[in-house]
Amino acid sequence: MPINLEKERLEILKRYRKLLRTAKPFLKDDDAKQIKKAFLISAEAHKDMRRKSGEPYIYHPLAVAQICVEEIGLGTTSIISALLHDVVEDTDTTLADIEKDFGPKIASIIDGLTKISGTFEYGTSQQAENFRKMLLTLSDDIRVILIKLADRLHNMRTLSSMAKEKQLKIASETIYLYAPLAHRLGLNAIKTELEDLGLKYTEPEAFKEIANKLSVNKRNRESFVDHFIRPIKKSLDELHLNYTIKGRPKSIYSIYNKIKSSNTPFDKIYDLFAVRVVIDVPLEREKADCWEVYSIVTDHYRPNPSRLKDWVSTPKSNGYESLHTTVMSLPYGNDKEGRWVEVQIRTKRMDEIAEKGVAAHFKYKGTDTRTSQAFESWLSQVREALETNDKSQSAVELVDDIKNSLYHEEVFVFTPKGKLVVLQVGSTALDFAFEIHSEVGAKCIGAKVGGKLVPLSHKLSNGDQIEILTSSKQKPSEDWLRIVTTTKAKARIKDFIKEENKSHVIKGRDMIEHRLKILGYPSLTLEITNQLRAYYNAKDANDLFYRFGKGYVAIEQLKHWKSDKEMHERKQAEKAIQVPIVDNKSFTKEMKRVQHDRKDADILLIGEDMDKVDYTLAKCCNPISGDDVFGFVTINEGIKIHRTNCPNSPELLSRHGDRVIKAQWASQIAMSFVVDLVIRGIDRVGLVNDVTRVISDELKVNITALNIGVKDGLFEGRISLMIQDTDHLVALVGELERVAGVIEVAREE
């Protein structure tokens, strides 16, 4: 299709002018001139570049800048940074050039947004290193994270033009890291859209099914909401409050998670939407008026006392404030019974913070100390974890620690003097001790909760008042890492035991080097260290040395590693590929060599390439012919084939994208696979006989294991079967669902 350059030029100007119009209310002095300068530099730098969709590349930085202004509420510095965010990475422009034109602040932000180049030690993750680099800028400028989220949101919105394996990798990384980050920064609308778009590409069938059902139910839902809010509106009008009230469906991703976690079909999920009341009142009346609206709602509908959430009195640590209650509606339409409806009550200020998160939080900073303190508390925890992080902890571990602090509910507890302390749900008395002070945590021997003595591992509940007991003889141990939940406590415990561990690490390394020389290896190379680390499932090299130095692993065990290594090398020597495959680049290179530049040489054909490549089917998800799959290059066990919806796939795809290779089933594959099915239903006499008859007699499928249990008239069974492919599986599931009494048949995840 021919490119109309003039039409594209006019479209670029149109998008640029829209950006200026959106930003106009807060532009000062020569802001517009600086934005124009950044736009012209970006347009010139990207003039010969196009996106995968075929569009001019400049559309992307313009869109990212538009999201920053319109959807996050950022200002001039962020607009300029967003327009230039890919210039250093993709063109000859340097950070020094940016600093000369726009100053050190914008150069620093763009440095945080620019991916790390260079080589990485095998076994590390470039994605994790990039994520760490970006998080480190939290200490200086949180706008780096916000612009990166805008960048990721636009990439997700335009992901359809990418290759399928790229879609899967980017979508998995988005769900694993970026959606939780948006959640923690209070960007609710962006978090929801990232999750939904992530699901669209990782579980397309499930996404489509839920989206279609929501669309079909839309008119009934709107009619129900109108009926539900009518009496509330009447009472609010009588009070002459300035308010808006609306119903909105839950996100597709949250509905999908509820279906999956509770085994509840879509038709049985009643809280598919929430009603939100937003009032516009002065700051000093916010709390009182929110409770007055709550009183009105509960005058009309019966509340569920266990579902009242008061984040107005105590905001969440990301600054979120709102009053949530769940009430029982009256029967309406075809419903013979009422249904539970969540009602959210908040002010206009609270609503802006809930939707635009941290940007709105800084806009209102100083007007509400509780919100500021809560958010600053979390930021300081992240900074602390980043600043205390040492080289012995890999980027992958650090990212995991940070991620664990992103998505969590909170528990509100008190010191003996009544000071409020906010921790994540699941926190223990030991977490609380480290939250008070590192030295208090290190000397902690127990605690009193409500005057009663409890152990270090005691999990805290809302309202607990805790007194920490200490001893000068106490010192942290590795077991404590299994007790604590918070990033801060984990970091402090690691710091305390690191010094003690140093001697064991040195001793272990010396022992390994000495024994390797006896076994015929002249030195402990990086390659051998990585092989040993994988063989003994150690987190890193220091962990490996420590285990040997401490005596957890006997030095005699190295002879077993040597024999297993030699056996693996003999097996590998039988394959056509002789060079070790360490990532997708080395895989493609070797496959092209042995396949003589076969057109699809970068794809592993399962069933055909067994004689060339060492690969196995992953046991965590048991892929079968017909499943969407990918290959993952392990450190010590060759290539593992995983299903794209494997429980481990988000982590593998988002942390180690450079070790993911394309894989598909050979067209003429003739193999049998073990598949585990879960069958649930209502028990009756002869049910097991009917199920096994359908499987063995009618469908001629071999059963390898069968276990069925009955409780209170309901049964649940797990059956392992030999299946040829997904079509065979679908046919089998269809037949089993026709058996009288069987309600649900599902492949076990």
TrEMBL record:
Family per similarity comment: Belongs to the relA/spoT family.
CDD domains per UniProt: ACT_RelA-SpoT, HDc, NT_Rel-Spo_like, TGS_RSH
Gene3D superfamilies hit by this protein: 3.10.20.30, 3.30.70.260, Beta Polymerase, domain 2, Hypothetical protein af1432
Pfam families per record: ACT_4, HD_4, RelA_SpoT, TGS
Ranges of residues in domain TGS: 409-470
Organism listed in the record: Aquirufa ecclesiirivi
Name listed for the protein in its UniProt record: Bifunctional (P)ppGpp synthetase/guanosine-3',5'-bis(Diphosphate) 3'-pyrophosphohydrolase
Transmembrane residue ranges: none
PANTHER family referenced in this protein's UniProt entry, alphabetically: GTP PYROPHOSPHOKINASE (PTHR21262:SF31), GUANOSINE-3',5'-BIS DIPHOSPHATE 3'-PYROPHOSPHOHYDROLASE (PTHR21262)
Biological role stated in the UniProt entry: In eubacteria ppGpp (guanosine 3'-diphosphate 5'-diphosphate) is a mediator of the stringent response that coordinates a variety of cellular activities in response to changes in nutritional abundance.
InterPro entries per UniProt: ACT-like_dom_sf, ACT_dom, Beta-grasp_dom_sf, HD/PDEase_dom, NT_sf, RelA/Spo_fam, RelA_SpoT, TGS
SUPFAM superfamilies cross-referenced by the UniProt entry: ACT-like (SSF55021), HD-domain/PDEase-like (SSF109604), Nucleotidyltransferase (SSF81301), TGS-like (SSF81271)
